[in-house]
Amino acid sequence: AIAGLAYTAYGIYEMKNPGDQAEPDPTKKTLVILGTGWGAVSLLKKLDTENYNVVVVSPRNYFLFTPLLPSCTTGTIEHRSIMEPVRNFLRHKKASVKFYEAEATKIDYEKKVVYVNDDSEVKGATSSTEIHFDMLVVGVGAENATFGIPGVREHSCFLKEVADAQRIRKRIMDCCETATFKDQSPEERKRLLHMVVVGGGPTGVEFAGELQDFFENDLKTWMPEIADEFRVTLVEALPSVLPMFSKQLIDYTEQTFKEETIDIRTKTMVKNVTKEYIEAEYVGADGKKVLEKIPYGLLVWATGNAVRPVVKDLMSQIPAQADARRGLNVNEYLVVKGAENIWAVGDCAVANYAPTAQVAAQEGAFLARLFNQMAKTEEIETELKNLSNAQETATNKDARDQIFGNIKDLQKRLRRVNSMGPFEYSHQGSLAYIGSEKAVADISWLTGNIATGGTVTYFFWRSAYLSMCFSTRNRVLVLMDWIKAKTFGRDVSR
Ligand code: NAD
Asked: Within 13 A of 209's CA, how many CA atoms are on the CB side?
């Protein structure tokens, strides 16, 4: 009876999840998509999945709305509010899509195989296998750049994934609680309450702003004993922060940081990291290089992107990629140069654009259109072949004329379908939150080049990010988190 019940339950499950059970259609090509970030998800959103056997592989079974990740480090936003499970949107696709939660460890270009590994905690489960592809989209993103600087991986926190934000949140509170521990030495208090951010790109700037907000709005009130010693320092190797913004906005950001008492150390290059201090080099007033030890309690490392090993390995298999350094070189149709059945999107592709979410999302949407069009082309070409066979065998003139007319129509349709131009990025502008309810925006599409900063821009930043959230569910959750943080303060529990 139990077996019967289980069988019935499984039957119901099977009906509810036809996609998960469907076998690949041998008449269709297998399209494997690696990743569930901006590029891959934007492709999946617009792809007509009925044209291919679509397989998605990613170690993350959710899409993460990364622009709001810095807000998760201080509890302004709860991380689940910016996560969208891939299964949730894949089930709404017309035809089934297979999803495997695993990491692609190697792509064999010649064999057309991806080797995947599921780092599962469930003991005894199958953990590695291989997946054949006819077409492959690499959208695996990038890893954190460390430039081989000793100690970075061991001692600092990155800010790329949910786990990183959770780690930072815990570490901030750990530093504050330990600093106020009974009989703590004054030097240790000073060190523990020094929060250092390395990298003055948008990630470093947004995090520093969020952290200072947390201190001003909440920590100071809840733990007044740390008020005089809590400090945030931003270290940047170049002469200014946010180099991709206009001079006016860079000045505005630096001025705002000064008012917020965030210390900006530009032209300062971190050379070494230990458990308790960083070693930073700058040129002193006498023109000589100085190596300064800067003690820290929390160290956040935000110095940009580096190529992932799986991408590096693929590059080494393709002679045309020999000169590629920052990622897979792609052509104007996002085809990996030297590999006609592999495409790349987002931070792992190099196509003359900055590695931003905006670029990745547009690339993904472009590939969806391209693949939809390729499927249509194939369909029309098959129809054309059938019609020309029928024309040859037709005995009566009227029938032949009729088929001729149909062929002309189809050829016209084929020309229309094939007229898709190459990928062109349309820049919608850059936005960054800089703390104390201020944001900077470079919005070039409005009129010429508008560069604004301030509270109005902050509300623009909020509404822009809210509208960009993946789903209505995400939007509601983020809005509720903002209201919650404003009403009750951020949660300082560890
Ligand atoms: P980034 O590459 O933009 O900035 C990293 C900074 O770290 C650089 O300015 C570099 O000079 C500095 N740096 C490197 N090594 C250093 C060292 N040893 N010591 C001191 N400074 C050092 O990195 P990011 O901020 O992580 O951004 C990555 C990409 O994502 C960029 O293309 C960025 O535009 C994009 N992004 C955009 C937004 C936004 O638009 N709001 C937010 C986050 C990221």
From this structure: 27
Across 35-127, the runs of DSSP E, i.e. the strands, are 53-58, 62-64, 83-85, 97-101, 103-108, 113-117
Residue 16's pLDDT is what? 40
Whether 2-142+307-375 and 152-305+426-488 share one fold: the answer is yes
Cα of 491 from ligand 1 centre, angstroms: 28
Is the pLDDT confidence value at 405 over 80? yes
pLDDT at position 2 over 70 = no
Taking the centre of ligand 1 as the mean of its atom positions, its distance from the CA of residue 66, in whole angstroms, is 14
Q: Closest by alpha carbon to 58, among 304, 308, 325?
A: 308
In Å, how far from its chain's centre is CA 30? 25
Residue 268 confidence class, pLDDT cut points 50, 70, 90? very high
C-alpha span between 186 and 226 (Å, rounded):
12
CA distance 208 to 230: 13
- Ligand 1: nearest atom to the Cα of 241: 9
Residues 64-101 pLDDT 10s: 999 999 999 999 999 999 999 999 999 999 899 999 99
Assess whether the C-beta atom of 322 lies below 6 angstroms from ligand 1. no
- Domain covering 152-305+426-488 in this structure, CATH number: 3.50.50.100
**Closest residue to atom 30 of ligand 1, CA basis:** 356
pLDDT of residue 449: 54
Residues 6+ apart with CB under 8 A from 247: none
DSSP assigned state of 216 = I
Two tokens at 153? 């991986």
Q: How far apart are CA 367 and CA 362, in angstroms?
A: 9
Alpha helices in 17-68 (DSSP H): 18-21, 38-46
Of 36, 39, 34, residue with least CA distance to 358: 39
Domain 2-142+307-375 has CATH 3.50.50.100: yes
Q: How far, in Å, from the CA of 205 to the mean position of ligand 1?
A: 9
DSSP-assigned states of every residue in 374-387: HHHHHHHHHHHHHH
